Amino acid sequence: MHTSYQLLIDGVWRDGSDGTKVPVINPATEEAFAEVSWGTTEDASLALDAAQKAMTSEWAEWSPTRRGRFLFSVAATVRRNIVELSALFCQEHGKPPHQAAGELEDAARYLEYFGGWADKLTGMTIDLGRGQLDYVLREPLGVTVHIAPWNYPLDIFCRSVAPALAAGNTCVVKPAEEISLVTLALARLFQEEGLPAGVLNIIPGPGAVLGKYLTEDPRVRGIVFTGSVETGRKVLEAAARNITPVISMELGGKAPSLVFVNDATELDGPAGGAAGAIAWNAGQSCGQRSRWYVRRDLYEPFIERVVERIRSLKVGPATEAGVSLGPLVSKKQYDKVMSYIQIGMDEGARLVAGGGRPEGLGDKGYFVAPTVFADCNNSMRIVREEIFGPVITVIPADGLDEALALANDNAFGLSSEIWTSDITTAHTVASRLDVGHVTINGSAAFGFEVPFGGVKHSGLGREGGPEAILAYTRLKNVWVNLK
Ligand code: TXE
């Protein structure tokens, strides 16, 4: 049975002003299982009005402590509803259940982390001498616009909405075209927990129309964007019109992983990491380790070990037990990844695993087999560009200096990784990688307490950690003549 989802504007669930409803496709079956109303620019304008009005109504009376407690209570509700939310998430996105539940837990953690910050934001006083008082107020920015992608919709929703609300802002969120039901379902929990009308508004719809409108509007005092570099540029241009602060932009990556372990007996860790990079979210991650630079003498053993590992990865629909990777999120993403696989073969890379649809899954569903390309080099498009699928490239390197130079030779600079048992090598590499995020001997620490974000084309600003919440505030200096 189809279920219909609506927009949230000023605390009211409603259809879009022109009545457009779009089918929501399960990427594992290619069948519609629900429909969602899309908003128009008229709806976006109503949402901005509501968010602006909310800045000076009941919400403004909420103390920081109350805002923090509210976020804790939403986190608890997310956990109480994790089974239903995960089921919807799997259906809409295709993620296996353990990954859907993991992302919901992450969402809850963002709510708790930033909820904890709500009553810890402070201003300061500045001593200018006798007869003068100078103090600095830390205030919310005002109406913030959040443009979200489809790959980690709940994680990304909470990592920006939680600090925005903790700091006293109001929000208008535009989810990605591909994934909006889980965001709307989560927003319902915020409403049920008693968020005043207009503080959180959700408008699904086309980015080219709604995203453009929202980022160009003068009522907006902060923009958060996660998506592609190309759209990121448009958002920056739109923000420039009204000098709207861009709080953060996370524009993806092409993360290198350097394998410089001592010998072949230490290859299990990195080979497992490579298999994980393929499987987790079916490779649709900004931090995916997609370029593997391996010590030349360990290059072939590493490839063998990775191929062995990925044989045990089960591809299939989220409804099947033991699935490691589900389908890609949409036909658009499936076509993109398939076209890169063809590009890799045309460029002369050696296909050592995968390379198309997995066997035994029929012709329905956007499934791509775990794919490994060896004998790659930095001039290939599959090494330079973001594929965003279950595909990795492996490249031999003659020594650490060469591996570092190759790793830094990319337009992106988000995440990276080094595998080594030598402590000096580990920290030397960490200091020389031109990125915002380095992990040593494994992949973790992408959120909550730590700053996550990139350099170069990977974007600006940081998600997670104290700096993230400060970016949702502005300073006002007040001087008093006491004479
Ligand atoms: O991205 P878009 P798409 C990368 C990944 C992927 C590629 C394309 O490589 O294959 O981008 O994905 C909204 N003004 N990433 O097409 O277009 C849009 O509606 C304002 C990496 O999904 O950037 C959606 O809500 N907003 C990334 C959001 O922007 C606009 C995650 C992202 O869509 C807009 C996703 C406009 N003019 C994709 N046009 C990451 N950093 O992890 C569209 N949008």
Strand-helix topology:
Elements: E1 3-5, E2 7-9, E3 12-14, E4 21-26, E5 31-37, H1 41-54, H2 58-61, H3 64-80, H4 82-93, H5 97-117, E6 124-126, E7 132-140, E8 143-147, H6 153-166, E9 170-174, H7 181-192, E10 200-202, H8 207-216, E11 222-226, H9 229-241, E12 246-250, E13 255-259, H10 268-279, E14 289-295, H11 299-311, H12 331-346, E15 350-353, E16 371-374, H13 381-384, E17 391-397, H14 400-408, E18 412-413, E19 415-419, H15 423-432, E20 437-440, E21 455-456, E22 459-460, H16 465-470, E23 473-481
Parallel strand pairs: 1-5, 8-9, 8-11, 9-10, 11-12, 13-14, 13-19, 14-17, 16-17, 19-20
Antiparallel strand pairs: 2-3, 4-5, 6-7, 7-23, 12-22, 15-16, 18-21
Helix pairs in contact: 1-8, 3-5, 4-5, 4-7, 5-6, 8-9, 10-11
Could you name the key traits of this structure?
binds ligand TXE, Aldehyde Dehydrogenase, Chain A, domain 2, 23 strands, 16 helices, 2 domains, 483 residues, alpha/beta
